[in-house]
Design a protein that fits this description.
Blueprint: H1 2-37, E1 55-61, E2 71-76, E3 81-84, H2 89-106
Antiparallel strand pairs: 1-2, 2-3
Length: about 110
């Protein structure tokens, strides 16, 4: 009886280690998935062109990375983000205007 109880205790101890290892592995896996999903992705485009006066800047979203579609994400002065189709003429125009503005700023003498 003494041998069987020590075997049970040893099996229980090993089982605890296995369960702990599985739990830690799952937590690590969930952490990696969450880190990847922290990337905000545009899923659709705005249908309304944004006025130039409210656009503060932009970032580019590429479908070859984490997200499914190419998009230009306009950042507004109010702190909002709007997803736009980079092929739309109004989006191209806004990008040209922002590039000109940036170019002027970079040539400003200090």
């Amino acid at each position: 009886m003494h041998i069987s109880s020590s075997v049970i205790m040893m099996t229980g101890f090993n089982m605890k280690n296995v369960l702990l290892a599985v739990l830690v592995g799952l937590l690590l896996l969930l952490g990696m998935c969450e880190a990847q999903s922290n990337q905000d992705c545009c899923l659709s485009y705005t249908k309304t062109p944004l006025p130039r006066r409210i656009i503060k800047g932009f970032t580019e979203q590429l479908s070859s990375e984490v997200c499914d579609i190419n998009a230009v994400i306009f950042h507004t002065k109010g702190g909002l983000k709007a997803c736009a189709n980079p092929r739309e003429p109004w989006v191209k125009k806004q990008l040209r205007l922002l590039s000109k503005k940036l170019n002027k700023m970079s040539h400003f003498p200090f």
